[in-house]
Write a structure and sequence with these properties.
seven-stranded mixed beta sheet, 21 strands, alpha/beta, globular, six-stranded mixed beta sheet
Length: 526
Amino acid sequence: MKVALAQFLYESNTFNPREATTELFTHGGTWLTDPDAVRQWLRHSDSQLGGSCEVLERAGCRTVPVAVIMAGTPAGRLGAECYQTIRQTLRDRLRAALPAEAILLHLHGAVCAVGEDDVEGDLLAMVRKELGFRGRLVVSLDLHANVTHRMVQHADAITAYRTFPHRDFAATGARAARLVLDGRPTVRTLVKIPALIPPTVTHDAHGHFQTMLAHARALEQTPGVLDVSLFPVQPWLDIEDVGTSVVVTCTDSSQGQRVARELATAWWQQRGAWQPDLLDWTAIIAQLHRPSGPISHHPEHAVGGPTSASAAARAEAGPPLVRKSAEYGGTSPWFLVDTADATTGGAAGTSAEAVAQLWPHRHDLPGDVLLWVVDPAAVAAAQSGATHFQLGQQHFPIEAEIGFTGECRYRARGSAYTGQEFSSGAAAVLHSGRLRIAVTTQGALCADPAFYECLGLKPAAALAIHVKSLLGWQAGYGIAADRGLPFNGPGCTSLDFVRLPFTGARRELFPFTDPTPNSLTPWQST
């Protein structure tokens, strides 16, 4: 069997006005179409594409990986020209690989472009209609995909990551490859749940989402069911038909409907527990002065309700989250989790909230605190030798010494995106008291110690580390969730969805309203 493969990953946040250009892929991410370059990349990266090729080649298939196109960071919609370039590249490279018995695409599922809200659905339609492909078409998606009827109609099988923070790229690729090899005709069943779920309560290792994943794995043992995937959607999409999804790939349409409806109903019944657990800065600063003690979650310091996390065991296998304590000298740093300005969710990274809150305490903190702001003007000022800066979207005034200028380019070494190279552009590090403030010209997809290390900083020795990441920092740094100090602030990844300018039908979603469960209606491919 000959199988053509490609990987295109990007995530849109429609509340970020910045349109993505091809430079976000070619300079900050990965853009490979040369077959030898793609093969070389596979040898050094933990990826869906690599996991697929390994399984297919072991089964005697001829694999033709034609492209790897990945952004260095999420942002807003793809610009129209950018999307047409990506679309044409994938079309041309796949056409050159035909004829083939199967095509396997590794996509994200939450990409919007100017003029196209369903990029993945459009790409799958292109494969079927423009390339005229009638063979087996299998797709893997991020579990934050916004699954559409068009995706379900054109793909013969759909699977998704089963970990968040994401640590199962290769495992997902391997699972998708097995769906290629299965070969049986399928029916795909989709149930959309009218809800937006805070990503911070969708950890695979504990809490209610871990329970849902375990439920899905049990139902996957049903005869005729090939794959059951859960999609707590990327919530920062102000588009039609956005929502959480259950997708079942099976050989029996009645079983598919039953399994999808059972899971969707159980998930919907959990909605009262979907509350983020955020801290105010009084609690955070107090915690930094007792670095070896547990987090004090007093009700008066909580923002957004009680946590839904529990000590339940992990569900799906992936690299362990907690690294041996030796790297951190026995005491792990605290992590200042900037939930509203998470570049991993498409925010710009330009908020200086953490800098502003910690600035009055910079001289009396008991250790170094590593902070980060995306601010091209501050980088330029540092390069010219300035000592006074107006940081971030707040234009927060500081005076600082320059500790580093150069490029922020690094290769991830944690449990997520292992071996992949990222760039946050030109960078500088500003020193004042115990604060070490990294300023860069662009954001980053990956929260990993290599980010700060490439700037000459030592995260393992820090009192606290600022991350613009919702959960990915736990995989990147190998740290358990209880070292996180999550806070709200300016930015377009706020977990307070009501404060964001959702429009039209999106206002009918939970938590804006509480729709009736009658909306949990299965839709099946034909």
